[in-house]
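User: Structure with adenosine monophosphate, tokens only please.
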Amino acid sequence: MAVYQSILLAVDFSPGTEVLLNRARALSAALGARLSMVHVVEPLLIDPAYELLPALPAEFEEQLEEGARKQLARLATELQVKSNDTYLRNGSTKSEILAVAESTGADLILLGRHGRHGVARLLGSTANAVLHAAKCDVLTVRLEN
Ligand code: AMP
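Assistant:
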């Protein structure tokens, strides 16, 4: 039996993601593991107290979600991941990645990790948050930037 049978790849469409996609493709093929993908759209939390900000059109979030759906579908085609193994979720990135990992029975979560330092590293903390809370193994792939 393969070490990992079900890999969940978390994608955010940022530049440099290609290396993560390549790693997911190679790893799932080598292990004969099922590959699923997840992208999370976080709600836009804008405090109405910031009156100086121009009001965002009501359909802005829908457009964001539609854009994410298209990008996710494009990557799924590229990686030959079936549409019912592709998950677009709304909410907290960490919680939704973990929820999809549990509901799909993933035994490995694959994420990117930026080579940032200082404050930028603290801000880019998805990999860190998932790493510490996941019930399964987590592999982070160092991204180029
Ligand atoms: P970050 O910590 O924001 O630099 O992101 C590190 C990695 O977490 C990314 O390379 C993705 O693998 C994953 N990730 C970040 N944001 C999302 C998102 N909104 N949906 C799914 N995965 C994400």
